[in-house]
Amino acid sequence: MSAGAATSAGAAGGDLGGQDACLSQDAFLAGRLHLSQFRKGHHRGGTDGVLAAMQAAALAPGRLVDLGAGTGLVGLAVAHLCPRAEVTLVERSPELAALCRSNAAANGLADRVHVVEADVLGSGADRRAAGLERGGADLIVTNPPWFEAGQVRRSPAQGRGRAHVFGETDGASPLMQWLRTASDLSAPGARLVMIHRADALGEILAAAAGRFGGLAIRPIHPRRDEPAIRVLVSARKGSRAAMTIEPALVLHEADGRFTAEAAALHGGLLPADWANG
C-alpha cells in the first residue's frame, strides 16, 4: 500500500510531547520487540494483539494494514516477523499515532512501517485524504472495539473507552461499518485477520457476509474447562468457501502458566497447524 499522505514512522521523531514518564517499556516476542505504552488511560497491547499478529504473520503478507493500531503491537510484530511486509498502521488518536511512530523507529522498522491518522469509521473521502488507498492491502488485521455504545459502561478514560466501545453510529452496526472499511481497503482476494469476543461471533458472521468468506474460526479458551472468550477469525475477500472451525487454543494451564502452544505464540513461534494460515 502506498503511504500517500501517511507520515513515515521515523519522521518527526515520533514526538510524544514530554510524556515519557507516563509510558512503560514492554517486551514482546521473547524480547525481540519492545514497545512504549501508556501506563494509564489507553488500551495496552497484550495477548489479543500477539495472537492476531501471529495469525497474520502465518499468511506472510506483502502489504498489510492494521486498523485501529493502538500502540502498534500487531502491525509492528508482523513487520518484525515478516521482513518483506510493508505495514500501514491506522490510528485516529494523535497520541497513539505518535507512539506508533516512536515504537516503529525504536525497533528499526521505520523504513517499512507508516502511520496514518484516520478514523476507521470515517468516510471513504476522509480515508483517501489521509492517504489510505482503496484496494491496496493484501491483508487487513484488526482488533476492533469490543462493544457497541450502550452495551456496557464506558471507561471514564477517553482513550480506553474509545478502544473498547464504538462511538455512536448511524445506520449499519459499527462492526459492519468497520468491516466495510476493511473490504474497501482490500485488494481482490485479500485476507482478513480479526480477533474479537467469542460471544460476538454472530455479529462477526453478519458483518462479514457479502464481503469476506471462507471464514476460519479459532476459539480461544482461558483454560481447558472454561468457555471460549475470544475468536480468532481469518477470511478472504470475495470468497464463497464454507466456514471452518479450527482447533481451539487454550491459553493457560490449571496453575495459571501458559500452555506450551500459547507460550510458543508469545515467543514468536508458529505451531505447525498455523503455519499455512
Automatic annotation (TrEMBL):
<dbReference type="GO" id="GO:0003676">
    <property type="term" value="F:nucleic acid binding"/>
</dbReference>
<dbReference type="GO" id="GO:0032259">
    <property type="term" value="P:methylation"/>
</dbReference>
<dbReference type="InterPro" id="IPR050210">
    <property type="entry name" value="tRNA_Adenine-N(6)_MTase"/>
</dbReference>
<feature type="domain" description="Methyltransferase small">
    <location>
        <begin position="46"/>
        <end position="152"/>
    </location>
</feature>
<keyword id="KW-0808">Transferase</keyword>
<keyword id="KW-0949">S-adenosyl-L-methionine</keyword>
<dbReference type="InterPro" id="IPR002052">
    <property type="entry name" value="DNA_methylase_N6_adenine_CS"/>
</dbReference>
<protein>
    <submittedName>
        <fullName>Methyltransferase</fullName>
    </submittedName>
</protein>
<dbReference type="Pfam" id="PF05175">
    <property type="entry name" value="MTS"/>
</dbReference>
<dbReference type="GO" id="GO:0008757">
    <property type="term" value="F:S-adenosylmethionine-dependent methyltransferase activity"/>
</dbReference>
<dbReference type="InterPro" id="IPR007848">
    <property type="entry name" value="Small_mtfrase_dom"/>
</dbReference>
<dbReference type="GO" id="GO:0008170">
    <property type="term" value="F:N-methyltransferase activity"/>
</dbReference>
<keyword id="KW-0489">Methyltransferase</keyword>
<dbReference type="InterPro" id="IPR029063">
    <property type="entry name" value="SAM-dependent_MTases_sf"/>
</dbReference>
